[in-house]
């Protein structure tokens, strides 16, 4: 069994990414032996790989008692041999851990390119240090006399006794704590406290970022996931000041950053290493592809870590620009916006940052109040000291660019200067940015879209086609270097601006072919053998005008004037050349099904012989050689239609991807021209709305339960537009009007129709009313109809004008399977029609924040067998609608499934009974601020002990512990931390003035509280008293809604805290707190008050967030600052830190008035909320005073 474990570990290590500088890991000849090579870092001067062997003499000891012998060949560099002899602390380590230790040791000992050894030199001046003190030693191994088994980290530290001095460790701790206090979870990996290669991870739950659920869907992130910034310090931790002092050459070896997502708050060491492993460098850019799974592989449980949709563009951006921006920010006055603008300008000029910064960069950025505080917080602005936490700054910068990604160009990262709102990020209007966006794969994977949402892809192409055929496109795929067929404008109708889409088009008759202007590319006359797919140049020009891979447009001079688009396969036997099976574009607008399949009979297998006597049909062709950008707008529209006509149906794309390896459309060369493929990518990638299929065409869509009743024969899509904070703004407006007008039904629904040709722009620009071309008879605003049939009138096909050669008007994409006739959206609107611009016969809504798109319906004439017909079924759990204002669908009033309405989703989540009217539910909710409730899982994702450890100061010899040994009955299994004077179990509960036990309960809240208690209990058993700083006696808790808790060991946070001295003077070892939970918990914050001892009030010159009456008053504990996802572990930690914060809490030493009474605390809390403008949680009075809820307040 041990042997098998060893082999398994070895194999696992072989499959995984190896630690820095290690490669070629193999099993050795003997049992328990393995070999690997050390190649060092790119900057280390190692020329030849060094072969290293590791042996476990007795493999039967693995993995609990084994030892390693590690050595290298004799011809290895002397430094390596010597370093290996010093490798210690490897006993009982797994294979991977051993490799990591060897990697760290050797990397350190090998010189970098400057010739220095890689030692952090900044701490060299720190004085003598005991090397055996280490935060990792949670079991105090290092203090025991056990010479045979020095711990890994003690051994590592002994090599660099001066690097990781006390000052250094204290600074690391301060920096990490700053990030933690700011609301993030912080982890570390590697050799952080030893000043060696280490990772610091800063993470936050996606659900805390205030991103709407729609945006999360569009971004393919899960609210439960963590957004993680991993900071790697290859040469040991560097402070903000040290990093700023590095020029760009020195920065790269000292700092690297990656943005990831994961279900865990912290990656494993292997995943962290993987994140920084460059598997390939794409393009000539410095853009990094890591070894992590991509953004679309979210669902796979295999690897917990993955990239986010925006990791690729951001990783390089952070690496390049963050430190220079921090440098300019440190010179004072600039906010992030100013620093970014300045950086962009410097970068575009290629200038250094030495000049004086012009005034315009100092203009502060407008504050966006709808963003959550954690996103807008700015560590630079809040402190005046020079010592700032780099991990915190980096994370705040990362959040800015993650949450607000739609405000920035994905490529050049400039702030986009447009008012348009979009749910997905995109690029600015520089064509180079679009080009890089497409070529670097920053956009969505088109293959993924085709496979998972084929109807959406069909819809997007159809919208584009409609818009282009009506010459209504405004943005074009410029900059993508599209090489397209020539466009003969004389064959097409000119757009008629006066008549618009209702115009009647007069076909222009063109006589003979080829009589058009010579501006076009040359036409080649040839003979064509349709059967053998061969062409012959009778006149044989000197040079063959085409190459293998060229695309041509071929027309025979017979009766059939169809265009054939095809790819040249072989020109070896010029003047005879071979082509692939052509894509035939019928001129009649009837879809051509002959080339729907998986491509032509393979041209490659055909034996090619010069034709002897083929039956040549006279034909001519032109080459795809027109530069798309050279065309005028009308010609671009025509060109787009033509290219789209050559695309196969989406089903064929799907079939190709499902059966071919690699599943990548760019390999379908014989069927899709490069120009058509680029165009398709552009159409998918430039869509900035979130459109999700409700009905799958195979096996039923996952969102089938979101199908709305009453729109028979319409294909339905969930539909969201607007910036990521749009939903939040909408909810705020809903709440405001609901309260102002005392509405029973906060919102109504109505239809918004628009002609098909407009939808391409709508889904890119969002709803606005800047251009409305069907008149504004009822004023400015977005028009909504109460009946689907009314909106339908605005949304139909473009009559008359269309795209199509020689007089045939084609307005729809011929290969569409949906074959859309019309499209209408269903919007949710604030229920205040009287305040609309107009409310009869249409709702004309002038406030965009009052409108939220919910559904998109398209009426189709689907091709046979392509779209599953869906049975109409009333949803079982309907969303309650205002009966006076329920819109009518095709025939009946519509019924919306409750699960489809996001804001309601939060409301119905266990916090209020469904029998209440919607208005009451809204009033009762604090949770509207937090639209995405998360199942509390603090038990499954507890903070690693080592990440907690790092926050606490080592033993301070100057602080005399009052009692040294805890009484024997409290000797639990928990680890011994720093000294504490706190003795658990000494509090006499009968002496406490506490509130009566609450009589209320709610099963969801009770369950959550029991879970919290269990999690805290577990943590308490596993953590040293002093590290925890609180104590909860579970035996004394008879009601889960009322906890008595003690806080202690404040000297661990700050030995010089006045409170520490105060407590010692009064011989107090703990503060006793009462924590009371409302029945709405976790949607309202707990109420926390001090029972004893008494503190000085703020008016008396004290602080610590303890107000008169002993109530704790911090924003976190009010409805304004509370988040339902806060775990009680973090709440307790924040309370403790709040008491220790400035201005400091001081005890009332007069001792005249005993414990705090229950009533005075609640009064103090209410007063403090009023002062700060914080929202008092609903039901607070009932909870704090034990009074019944007064009316509706
Ligand atoms: Zn750009």
From TrEMBL:
GO molecular function, one term: NAD+ poly-ADP-ribosyltransferase activity
CDD domains reported for this sequence: UBCc_UBE2Q
Keywords noted in UniProt: Glycosyltransferase, NAD, Nucleotidyltransferase, Transferase
Positions of the UBC core domain: 1004-1193
SUPFAM superfamilies given in the database record: ADP-ribosylation (SSF56399), UBC-like (SSF54495)
Residue ranges of the region described as Disordered: 107-134, 870-940, 958-979
Pfam families, sorted: PARP
PANTHER family: POLY ADP-RIBOSE POLYMERASE FAMILY, MEMBER PARP (PTHR21328)
Listed name of the protein: UBC core domain-containing protein
Species of the source: Friedmanniomyces endolithicus
Biological classification of the source: Eukaryota, Fungi, Dikarya, Ascomycota, Pezizomycotina
């Amino acid at each position: 069994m041990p042997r098998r474990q060893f082999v398994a570990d070895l194999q696992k290590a072989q499959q995984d990414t190896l630690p820095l500088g290690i490669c070629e890991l193999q099993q050795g000849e003997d049992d328990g032996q393995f070999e690997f090579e050390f190649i060092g870092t790119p900057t280390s001067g190692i020329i030849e790989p060094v072969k290293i062997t590791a042996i476990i003499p007795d493999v039967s000891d693995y993995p609990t008692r084994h030892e390693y012998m590690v050595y290298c060949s004799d011809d290895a560099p002397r430094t390596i041999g010597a370093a290996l002899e010093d490798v210690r602390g490897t006993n009982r380590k797994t294979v991977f851990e051993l490799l990591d230790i060897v990697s760290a040791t050797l990397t350190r000992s090998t010189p970098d390119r400057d010739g220095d050894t890689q030692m952090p030199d900044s701490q060299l001046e720190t004085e003598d240090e005991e090397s055996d003190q280490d935060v990792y030693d949670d079991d105090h191994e290092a203090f025991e006399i056990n010479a045979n088994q020095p711990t890994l980290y003690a051994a590592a530290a002994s090599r660099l006794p001066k690097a990781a001095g006390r000052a250094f460790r204290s600074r690391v701790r301060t920096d990490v704590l700053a990030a933690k206090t700011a609301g993030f979870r912080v982890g570390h990996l590697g050799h952080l406290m030893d000043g060696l290669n280490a990772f610091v991870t800063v993470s936050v739950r996606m659900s805390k970022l205030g991103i709407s659920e729609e945006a999360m869907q569009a971004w393919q992130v899960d609210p439960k996931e963590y957004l993680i910034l991993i900071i790697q310090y290859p040469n040991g931790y560097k402070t903000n000041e040290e990093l700023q002092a590095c020029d760009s050459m020195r920065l790269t070896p000292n700092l690297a950053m990656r943005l990831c997502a994961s279900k865990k708050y912290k990656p494993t060491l292997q995943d962290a290493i993987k994140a920084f492993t460059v598997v390939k460098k794409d393009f000539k850019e410095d853009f990094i592809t890591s070894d992590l799974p991509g953004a679309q592989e979210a669902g796979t449980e295999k690897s917990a870590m993955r990239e986010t949709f925006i990791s690729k563009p951001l990783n390089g951006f952070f690496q390049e620009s963050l430190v220079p921006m921090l440098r300019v920010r440190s010179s004072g006055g600039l906010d992030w916006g100013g620093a970014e603008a300045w950086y962009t300008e410097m970068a575009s000029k290629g200038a250094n940052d030495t000049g004086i910064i012009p005034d315009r960069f100092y203009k502060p950025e407008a504050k966006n109040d709808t963003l959550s505080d954690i996103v807008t917080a700015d560590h630079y602005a809040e402190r005046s000291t020079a010592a700032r936490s780099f991990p915190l700054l980096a994370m705040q910068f990362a959040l800015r660019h993650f949450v607000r990604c739609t405000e920035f160009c994905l490529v050049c990262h400039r702030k986009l200067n447009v008012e348009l709102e979009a749910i997905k990020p995109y690029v600015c209007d520089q064509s180079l940015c679009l080009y890089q966006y497409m070529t670097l794969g920053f956009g969505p994977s088109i293959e993924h879209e085709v496979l998972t949402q084929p109807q959406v892809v069909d819809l997007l192409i159809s919208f584009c086609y409609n818009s282009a055929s009506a010459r209504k496109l405004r943005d074009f795929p410029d900059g993508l270097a599209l090489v397209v067929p020539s466009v003969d404008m004389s064959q097409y109708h000119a757009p008629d601006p006066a008549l618009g889409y209702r115009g009647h088009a007069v076909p222009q008759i063109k006589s003979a072919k080829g009589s058009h202007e010579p501006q076009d590319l040359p036409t080649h006359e040839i003979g064509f053998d349709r059967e053998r797919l061969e062409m012959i140049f009778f006149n044989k020009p000197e040079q063959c005008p085409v190459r293998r891979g060229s695309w041509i447009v071929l027309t025979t001079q017979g009766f059939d004037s169809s265009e054939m688009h095809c790819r040249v396969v072989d020109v070896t036997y010029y003047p005879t050349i071979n082509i692939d099976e052509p894509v035939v574009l019928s001129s009649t607008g009837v879809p051509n099904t002959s080339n729907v399949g998986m491509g032509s009979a393979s041209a490659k297998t055909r034996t090619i012989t010069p034709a002897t006597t083929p039956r040549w049909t006279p034909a001519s062709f032109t080459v795809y050689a027109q530069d798309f950008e050279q065309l005028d707008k009308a010609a671009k529209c025509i060109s787009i239609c033509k290219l789209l006509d050559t695309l196969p149906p989406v089903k064929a794309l799907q079939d190709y991807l499902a059966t071919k390896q690699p599943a990548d459309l760019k390999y379908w060369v014989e069927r899709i021209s490069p120009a058509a493929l680029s165009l398709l990518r552009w159409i998918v990638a430039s869509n900035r709305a979130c459109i999700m299929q409700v009905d799958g065409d195979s096996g039923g869509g996952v969102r089938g339960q979101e199908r709305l009743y009453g729109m028979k024969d319409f294909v339905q899509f969930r539909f969201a537009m607007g910036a990521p904070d749009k939903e939040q703004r909408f909810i705020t407006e809903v709440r405001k009007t609901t309260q102002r007008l005392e509405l029973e039904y906060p919102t109504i629904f109505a239809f918004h129709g628009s002609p098909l040709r407009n939808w391409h722009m709508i889904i890119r620009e969002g709803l606005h009313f800047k251009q409305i071309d069907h008149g504004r008879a009822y004023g400015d605003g977005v028009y909504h109809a109460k009946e689907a049939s009314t909106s339908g009138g605005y949304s139909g096909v473009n009559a008359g004008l269309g795209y199509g050669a020689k007089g045939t008007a084609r307005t729809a994409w011929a290969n569409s399977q949906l074959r859309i006739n019309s499209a209408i959206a269903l919007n949710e609107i604030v229920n205040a029609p009287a305040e609309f611009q107009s409310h009869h016969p249409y709702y004309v809504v002038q406030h965009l924040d009052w409108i939220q798109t919910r559904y998109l319906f398209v009426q189709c004439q689907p091709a046979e067998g392509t779209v599953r017909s869906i049975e109409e079924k009333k949803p079982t759990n309907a969303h309650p609608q205002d009966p006076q204002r329920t819109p009518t669908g095709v025939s009946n009033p519509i019924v919306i499934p409750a699960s489809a309405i996001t804001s309601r989703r939060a409301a119905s989540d266990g916090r209020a009974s469904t029998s209440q009217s919607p208005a009451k539910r809204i009033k009762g909710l604090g949770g509207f601020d937090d639209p995405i409730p998360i199942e509390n899982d603090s038990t499954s994702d507890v903070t690693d002990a080592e990440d907690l450890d790092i926050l606490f100061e080592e033993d301070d010899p100057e602080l005399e512990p009052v009692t040294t040994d805890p009484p024997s009955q409290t000797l639990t299994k928990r680890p011994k931390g720093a000294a504490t004077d706190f003795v658990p179990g000494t509090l006499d509960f009968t002496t406490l003035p506490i509130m009566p036990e609450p009589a209320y309960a709610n099963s969801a809240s009770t369950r959550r509280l029991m879970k919290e208690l269990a999690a805290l209990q577990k943590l308490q058993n596993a953590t040293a008293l002093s590290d925890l700083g609180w104590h909860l006696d579970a035996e004394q808790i008879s009601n889960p809604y009322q906890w008595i808790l003690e806080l202690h060991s404040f000297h661990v946070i700050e030995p010089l805290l006045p409170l520490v001295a105060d407590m010692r003077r009064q011989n107090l070892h703990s503060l006793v707190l009462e924590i009371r939970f409302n029945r709405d918990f976790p949607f309202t914050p707990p109420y926390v008050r001090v029972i004893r001892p008494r503190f000085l009030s703020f008016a008396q010159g004290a602080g610590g967030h303890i107000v008169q009456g002993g109530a704790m008053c911090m924003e976190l504990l009010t409805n304004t600052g509370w988040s339902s996802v806060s775990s009680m572990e973090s709440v307790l930690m924040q309370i403790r830190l709040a008491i220790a914060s400035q201005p400091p809490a001081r005890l009332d030493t007069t001792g005249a008035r005993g414990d705090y009474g229950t009533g005075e605390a609640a009064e103090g809390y209410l007063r403090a909320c009023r002062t700060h403008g914080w929202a008092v949680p609903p039901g607070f009075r009932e909870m704090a005073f034990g009074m019944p809820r007064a009316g509706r307040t």
